[in-house]
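Section 3.1: Structural characterization of target chains.
Under the original work plan, the team committed to producing a structural model for every single-chain target entering the pipeline before any wet-lab resources were allocated. The record below documents one such target. The sequence was received from the expression subgroup and is listed exactly as submitted; it comprises 1141 residues.
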Amino acid sequence: MARRLSINLPVFSLSPDNEIATGQYIRLRQCIRDAFESFLRNLNLKSLSALEHAFQKHGGEMNSSKFLKVVTEVFPAPETPHRTTIMEKKFIQQMACLMLFESVDVDCSGEASWMEFVEFVCAIAEELRLQAAEESGQTFEFFEAEQVALPFRPQITKCHFDRVFFWPQHPIDSAVIFEEGQPACHLHFPRTMVRRRRVEGGHRQELLSASFMPAPFQWVVTSGNDNLVCFWDENFNLVKRWSVDHVWTGEKGKVTSIGALCWCPEIKALYAADHFSQMVRAWRIDSPLDVRASNSAFEPDKRLELKKQMTHTKSVQAICWMSALKCLATASLDTTVQIFDLVEMKRTYTLSGHKRGLTCLQYCEKNHMLMSCGFDNYICIWDPGAGTLSFTLTGHECSIAGLCSIPGTDYEFMSVDFEGQVRLWDVRRVVCLQNFCATDKQAEKNGELEPLEPRAICALGTNRVLISGRRMVVFDREAPNPHLTADWQIHAVAFNERRIEIVTPIKNDLYVWCALTGMLRTVHDNVIEGTITAMTLDLSERRIFVGADDGEIHVVNYGCGALLKKLTPHQYEVTQITCIPEKVLTLSAPEKMLVIHDDNESDRSFVLKRIDLSGAGAITQFAYDGGSVIACTSQDWKVVWYHMDFAKEVSRSDGGEEKKRATSAVGSLRDAGDEEFFNVDFPDSMSSSDGCEVKHASAVTCGVYLTDAPLLATADADGAVIFWSMPPLRTYSFFSKVSLDIPGAVGPFIVSSIALSHPDEERLYIGLERGMLVCIDISYIVQSAKSLRQEILRRKEAGEAAAVISGRIFEEMPKPCNKPEYVFKLTTTWASSAHRGSIDKIVVCPRDPAVLLTLGSDQRVCMWSHDSGEALGTLEQGLPEGLHHKPLTEWKFPIRAAEELERDKSFIEDAAEEASDDSDSDDSSSLKTGSSSPAQPLQRSPRRRLQNSQASIPSITGASAAASSAAVSPKRSPQEPPPPQAEKRLAAARSAPDLRPGSKSQRPTSSSGNAAGNAAGSAAGSAHRLGRRKGSAAGEAWLLGSGGGAGSPKAGGNSPTKGSRLQALTQHKGSGQRGVEWYAGPFAAGHFASPSLYGPPMALPKLPSGRERPKFSKSKDLVAAARRLSSALGDLDGRNSKDIF
C-alpha cells in the first residue's frame, strides 16, 4: 500500500563519483543550516500571521506531516552560493523545515503547538542576534606580566613617559616611547620590553606627536616642541627635517610647533594641528622622492584647507582619519568633536556631549563608531555618519589619560584614567569586560613602589598592553592557540548522529561543530552557571543534559540552547550523566551518590531513587547494562554492581542479608500484583569483584557493557582489561583477562578510557594516560560468550530450565580461572600517538563507515579511522573575528554521500506521512458510548516516542493489561458487580471532584460507581507507576465513569449525568505536592458547560491578530483536557491521589 504524503518529495541524485558527491552533499548540508537560520532571522509579521492562522486551523498544534506542508509554503527560497536545481532547493527547504519541527518538538510528542513554536522562535532569534552582533567566542582577561623586567625611569625626576606608539605594519617590530623633556625617543622590543636603542639627531626639544606612513613610504613622522617635523625611514634613520615656519602659519615671521599628526593614505595627505592654536593644515605628499628632494617644508595644500569650515576655539589635541567614510575627525580642548568630509571639503557635524576638554580619539572601522574622551570621566561613542551620540561608557571616577584599540579584534578598546584604573570595553555589546588597577596603591602609599601616575596606554598586540607614566607596566592575557579545540579544559564530547554534529562544552557554553567540515557552527552561551563537567544527549538527540562543578544539572534545547528544565542538583560536581528510557542517571563521584531522575515530564522532574555508592570506595565511573543494573568502577581495585529498583547492591558473597532483604522486597511487590517486577532477575552469585579469583590489582578507571554479548569490560591502571560474565552466564563472575602488548612501547599502560567498535563490538579501543590510542581484537572473547549463551538457552529450551534457573548447569561447565586460556596478552591491531596528555573519552560514531572521536587533556578533540587508526583531523578553534587561519590538520570525515542523501529523504518521507483518521473515529465512538456502558479506557493512538532510542518498550503490564481486558470484556449493566478477580487485584481509588463549576465533590453512592472508579483509578495508577511518558497509549488510559464524563459534550443526553466522575491523577511518591494550577479556555472547568445552566463558558481572549480562536478539538484532546482538569480540581480540593500498591 502506497504511503500518503503531505508534500511531494524532491527527486534528484548526486554524482556517481563519491568524492564529488561528498562535496555536493556537504554544500547541501551547509545550505540547509543557512536556510534554517535565515528563516528564523527574517520572520516578519506576514509570515507569522500565516503560521498562526495555520496553527489555529489545525486546532492549535500540528504533527510533522501538517507542519511540513504548512511551513514550506511560507519558507523563502534558499539563497545558495552555488548553482542548485529546483529539486535541490526543495530538498533544502524540506530538510530545514524538518529541522525546525524537531527543534520545536523537543519532547518527541509528535506534535508542535503554536506556543512551543513561538517560544522556540524567540529563543533562537535572540541567540542568532547575539551571535551576529558578538560573534560569540572565548574571552580572556589581562594580568600583569611577571616575566617582563621594566627598570627604566625618566631621566628627569618626576617626569613621565608621556607617549607610547606601536605600529604593527612597521618593518621594525618596536615600541616607540617618548619621554617628557627629551628630544630623543627609545625603541623597545615588544616581546621582552628590552630597550633596543635610542633614536636621536632629529629634534632639539621634547617630542610631541608621531604618525606612521605605510607603503610606499614605511616612514615615521614626528613633531616636537622645537618647530620641527622629522621624517624617519624604516630603520629610524633621519630622512628629512622640516621647519614649521611662516609658510605653514601664513603669518610672516611666525613659527609654531605641531601638537598632533595624522596621515591619510587614501588622499596622500599629512594633517597637522597647531600645538598652541586651533589651526589645522595639511601637506600633500605623493611619493618618498618628493620629500627626499625637498630643501624645505612643502606649502600646505589649499585644496585640503579646513580653516573656513573649522569652528574650534581652542587647540586640537587629536586627529583621526576614518578611511571608510573619507572623513576627518578632530578633538579639541573646547569639548567638541568636528567631522569633515574631505570629498566635499566641508564640515558635516559638530559633536557636543563632553563637558571638559578632549585629548583622545579612536575609530572602530568595523562597527563605524567614533570614540572620544579626555578630562571627563566617561567615553562617548558617536555615529560619525549620522552625527549623533550612540552610547556613553561610564565607570571611571576621574579624568581619562589614554584610550587605545586592541589590534586584531576591531571591537575591543582599553582605557586608563589618572588614578590607574583600567577598563577593557567591548563596543559590540557596549559593556566593560574587565576592570583592574594598573598599580598597587597600598604599595605606592607605603613607599614600596614608585607612583605610576599613568599618562599613556598602548596595545603592543592582541594580548599585550603597555601603560606608561613615571614608570611602565605591562599586562598580558593568555594568547589563544588556534590549533586547539579550546583554550580551557574540555570535560566531555558528544556526537549527534541525526544532525551529523559534534558538541563540546567549554566553560559554561556549548560549542556545536559541523562534523562534515570540522568548522564551528554555533555557540549556546551560558547554559548553566558553573563550569560544565558532564554532558550527554538524550535518546532522541533533541536535548542536552549538562552538569556543572557546583552540582547543578540543566536540560537545554539542542536547537537553541534554551533551558527546558532543571534536575535535582548534587551537592558536589556532576561526574557523569547517562540517559535511559524515561529516566536520567547522574553521578557525583565526590558525593559518592548516584541519582535516578524521572524524565517523563518535559518541564519538570523529580528523584526516583538515590543510590549511596560509599560502599564501593572512590568511584571513577559507572556503566548501565540496558536493564536495571549498573556497574561502578572504583579506585579501590574493584567493580560493584547495584540494582536500580532497590538502590542497593544486589548481593554479596560475604553477606547474604542484603540479598534476603532485596528478595523479600521483590516478593512483596509481586504479591501486590505489580507486574513491573515480575521479570526481575536476582542471581545467586556475588555482586562485587572482591570474591573473584582473578580481579583487578590497581585502580579500575572505566568500564563498558557489551550489547550483543553478556559481558562487561573494565580496565585498570596496569593496562589490564577484565571481562565479567552477565546472565544467562555466571552472574558477575570473571570470564577473561587481557593484558596489552604494544610493540615498541614501554609500560606501564594506564588505561583512561575504553570504547567498543560499532556494530560488531569485536574490537576494543583503549585510550592511555600517555595519550596513545590502541585497538585490540576481542572477537575470540565475544564469540566465546555468545556460544556459551546459546548453549545455555538451548539446554533451557530442551527441558533443563530448572537447572538453568537454579544455576546447577554451571557445575557441568568449566569455570574461568587464572589459567592461560583465560588470562593472556593481546597484541594491538593498531596504535597511534593521539594526544600529548591522557585520552579522557572515546566516542564511537555509529555510522558506516564508523569513526572515533577522542577527547584529550591537551584540550583537543581529534577524529580517527576505526580500521587503521589514521588521523582524520582535529577540531580547531581558529582565530577570532574571521582572521585568516590555516588549520594544522585536514578534516576528512568519511561519508557515503549517496546513502546519506537517501537517509535524509527517508527522514522527510517518514515525517510527511499522513496519519489515517482511524484514531479520531475511535475517539469519537468511544466518547459517544451510552450511559449503560461500563467504565472503559479512551482508546487513543499513542503519540510518537523517542525515534532514535534503541531501548525496547516494555510489554503490556499494569494499566495496559487492565485497559486491554476492559476493551475485550463484554458490556455489563451499571448494577452488575465487577468480576471478583478485579476486586482482588485492584486497590481502591478516590474519585476526582465533579467537573461542573461550583459543584461540590461527592463520592458515588452506588456500588457500581465505586467499582468502576476503583478499576479505573487502579489502571491509571499502575500506568503511572510504569513511568509512561505523557501521551502514550497506556499513560492516557483515563477512565470515565458510567454515563460519560460530567460536563462532557460527548456524554449521552444534553445535561451531565449525575454521579459520573473522572478518575484523579496518581502521583509519584517522590514528586511532592503540586502547586495550584489554573486553566482557562478549553481547559477550564466550565468550558463545556451549558450557558443556561452554569453561566457563560470561560474562554481565552482573542488572538493578537484579532481572529477568533479555533474551536476545541473534542475528539482529539478531550482526554488531555480532562486529565488537566482532574489534576487542577483535585489540587484545589486537597484531594491529591496517592500511588496504589
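The two ends are 46 Å apart (CA to CA).
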